[in-house]
């Protein structure tokens, strides 16, 4: 299965940073830098030493608080005759776009951007350079709406929430066909029924797409007790600058965090220090948008992340935990590019990629949907990601000889135990204890409580007693 | 349907060539030139003024006649313990690779090239620049062969024809999985059953792919009476240089040629002259490889092309008719990039693209497989094709007011008659005459004779008497 318990780091393409850079200065490594200057030109990006956002400037699409623009935009939206209602996933993309994760995109894709994403996994900026963009960020429209908007010759629409309240205006609009079959085939490499994102956001969506320039009335909030973790790329850049980070390494996660992940992250920092970086900072960045029904929910995962920091498994001094607001495609090699690209915009210049990133089981066949190695291969070759240092890591496991998570050593493979996400779930469900040192006690307790909430515990459980103690 | 009878030229992105260039000198137009020098560095490319081949050098993989290399390679191939038999389509790709149409590819794709083609429609050259490559050029292997080769640790295999005669050696081989579903979905944007290339070359192919460096024993010949039309990119470049071409415009065709095509080609030359080119030469380049069962066969199409030149519909002085040896994917926007890219390697710096290029009907739904506009849109944005001038043209038709093919004039649309490939076939089959001036008499006669050979004529036929006269 896609998730394996632990990993080992390789650094095949890294060179040492140039010497003589001070605190907070960018450390260039041996990877071609395209697109010129390192200093971000974005008005709100004070982190001058961090990697430049895609397109040179972080695109932020929320109306500024000052100057009355929000009130004016709210009035403008209310006056627009056409309203497009956003579903859950649409709102997550609106959030993503509004904060510049998808820079240089300025709104939902028009057809040229959509076609480039589908065919090339990259879009061409105004200056002709390619910027990575592997998943379509689009808004669907049904035929009746399409006809009404076009009959009016409208050039802008209001985007509204489930309660019909305006949240944004999409202007200079373009409406084009939503060829679902082609979109699905080119994004997932299959059209098999049962792809979670497809069922959630495509199958019942309209047959048209509407693109345009987006302006969002105010920052997107979820009021679920986790908004303090939802840092925008601009806020993350400020935080990295405040910490004088000279390297930022991002770790994308949608599964429960365990000590194998922690080992990997700690080891990555150690290696970056060895390479000459003075203060590498980890962006521990669980995905917060739509996930499939059998994934562990965000609220549980965030509680786990809190435990990991509380119990000192990761050092809070060199770790920033935040939520990545994107929905999950489960599109393997196509999606991992999006995961990496978005983190460049948040200031990360190193990206850790594991086995079968963004992968899952084939929905109708008894096999993984993607080759487990394709994700890191595709990522390392992707157009527009030349500036990013890719850190691939080998699969590893629980070391039964040393009773802890350890990098896999093929010379003594019989010592290693693989604990997949599926296995972890089954352990927790059956109240069995995981091997000692697999996960921090607080984190395991959170997980067991979650599975308890799904189905009451059956029979006796030593583990349950242990974690309740 | 995909084929419409006639077209109108637009030149949206052309600028005038720089003044002062002499005969045979390259005429630069207002399109970004990447990758440096215009002069081909290929040893056998004497056409110094033509557009540079992809990767800077035309890759030719046929063993040289002189020096005994062919005999040595033949002995080497005969001694290799592992032989991979080439099917019809495999041989066509071998032909394509051997002459450098796919430069800078040096053989059947290894996995990194395959993945880049599938995900990015482009592969990265040794110097990091992107070269367009939208369709996988791969060789399949069944599981028994894969196991035998890997058990031996073989590093090279002989490629043999249907009679088990060695035609090439593939060395420094790499064997990797042939995920057919993913390949099909990402290439065609559908996995519907009934795609002609898939049924011909993928469905029954092996579950593994073998890539490597190719060396071909001698030039590929078909001995079908048409080999004199099969000019290699190197031969075409020599011919263009001999004619002192200062612009080469390529026209890809897999359907019967008619006066609409001729009008378009003549008009393109006129416009290139107006732009300041002294001697634009047309590469009229019918596709010669695998086509679907209901397409008109190559031999018939070539007879038609001969008539078009004989009857002066096109000027032989400024026209080179040759066969493009590639098989047909019918993969629309993905494939049109291949069609264009290959012609760069043959020296063309202008490419004419029509409505729904390389398109066809959806195999299981009552609609075209691709949006008719996507081909030219995708082509104009494709990575690695920045140097090529794309000449899109609008659909047009038979002008009933002037009794000839004419560029479509929307102000008097009632005057125009659209004659699709399907309609043309039905006219010929039913012995009905097409409108006067739709096709040159000799060309129409060739077509009628072909349909006669498929099914004997029924009833009386004025047309048949006319063309027989």
Automatic annotation (TrEMBL), chains A, B:
E.C. code: 2.7.7.4
One term of GO molecular function: ATP binding
Enzyme class, broadest EC rank: transferase
Keyword Protease part of the UniProt annotation: no
Localisation per UniProt entry: Plastid, Chloroplast
Keywords: ATP-binding, Chloroplast, Nucleotide-binding, Nucleotidyltransferase, Plastid, Transferase, Transit peptide
Catalysed reactions, as listed in the record: sulfate + ATP + H(+) = adenosine 5'-phosphosulfate + diphosphate
This protein's GO CC annotations: chloroplast
Listed pathway(s): Sulfur metabolism; hydrogen sulfide biosynthesis; sulfite from sulfate: step 1/3
GO biological process: sulfate assimilation
Domain Sulphate adenylyltransferase catalytic: residue ranges: 227-450
InterPro entries: ATP-Sase_PUA-like_dom (IPR025980), PUA-like_sf (IPR015947), Rossmann-like_a/b/a_fold (IPR014729), Sulfurylase_cat_dom (IPR024951), Sulphate_adenylyltransferase (IPR002650)
ATP-sulfurylase PUA-like domain boundaries: 51-218
SUPFAM superfamilies tied to this protein: Nucleotidylyl transferase (SSF52374), PUA domain-like (SSF88697)
UniProt family annotation: Belongs to the sulfate adenylyltransferase family.
Protein name: sulfate adenylyltransferase
Organism of this sequence: Triticum aestivum (Wheat)
Gene: LOC123104987
């Amino acid at each position: 299965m896609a998730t394996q318990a632990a990993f080992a780091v390789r650094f095949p393409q890294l060179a040492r940073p140039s010497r003589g850079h001070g605190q907070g200065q960018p450390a260039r490594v041996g990877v071609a830098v395209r697109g010129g200057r390192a200093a971000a030109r974005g008005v709100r990006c004070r982190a001058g030493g961090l990697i430049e956002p895609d397109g040179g400037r972080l695109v932020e699409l929320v109306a500024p608080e000052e100057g009355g623009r929000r009130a004016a935009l709210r009035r403008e939206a209310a006056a627009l005759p056409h309203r497009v209602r956003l579903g859950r996933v649409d709102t997550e993309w609106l959030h993503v776009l509004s904060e510049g994760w998808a820079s240089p995109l300025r709104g939902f894709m028009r057809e040229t951007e959509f076609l480039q994403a589908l065919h090339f996994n990259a879009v061409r900026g105004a200056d002709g350079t390619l910027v990575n963009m592997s998943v379509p960020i689009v808004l669907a429209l049904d035929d009746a709406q399409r006809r009404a908007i076009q009959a009016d010759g409208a050039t802008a629409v209001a985007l509204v929430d489930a309660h019909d309240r305006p949240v944004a205006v999409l202007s200079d609009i373009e409406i084009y066909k939503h060829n679902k079959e082609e979109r699905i085939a080119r994004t997932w490499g299959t059209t098999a029924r049962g792809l979670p994102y497809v069922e959630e956001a495509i199958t019942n969506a309209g047959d048209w797409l509407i693109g345009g320039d987006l302006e969002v009335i105010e920052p997107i909030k979820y009021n679920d007790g986790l908004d303090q973790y939802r840092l925008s790329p601009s806020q993350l850049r400020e935080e990295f600058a405040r910490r004088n980070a000279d390297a930022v390494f991002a770790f994308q996660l949608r599964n429960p965090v365990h000590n194998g992940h922690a080992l990997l992250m700690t080891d990555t920092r150690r290696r970056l220090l060895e390479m000459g970086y003075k203060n590498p900072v980890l962006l521990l960045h669980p995905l917060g948008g739509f996930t499939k029904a059998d994934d562990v929910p965000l609220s549980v995962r965030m509680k786990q992340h809190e435990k990991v920091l509380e119990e000192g498994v990761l050092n809070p001094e060199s770790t920033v935990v935040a939520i990545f607001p994107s929905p999950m495609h489960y599109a393997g090699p196509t999606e991992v590019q999006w995961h990496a690209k978005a983190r460049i915009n948040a200031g990360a210049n190193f990206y850790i990629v594991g086995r079968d990133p963004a992968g899952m089981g084939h929905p109708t066949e008894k096999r993984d949907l993607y080759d487990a190695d394709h994700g890191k291969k595709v990522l390392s070759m992707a157009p527009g990601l030349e500036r990013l240092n890719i850190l691939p890591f080998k699969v590893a496991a629980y070391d039964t000889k040393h009773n802890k998570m350890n990098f896999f050593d093929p010379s003594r493979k019989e010592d290693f135990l693989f604990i997949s996400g599926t296995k972890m779930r089954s352990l927790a469900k059956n109240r069995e204890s995981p091997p000692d040192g697999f996960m921090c006690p607080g984190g395991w307790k959170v997980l067991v409580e979650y599975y308890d909430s799904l189905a009451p515990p059956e029979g006796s459980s030593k583990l349950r007693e242990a974690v309740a103690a």
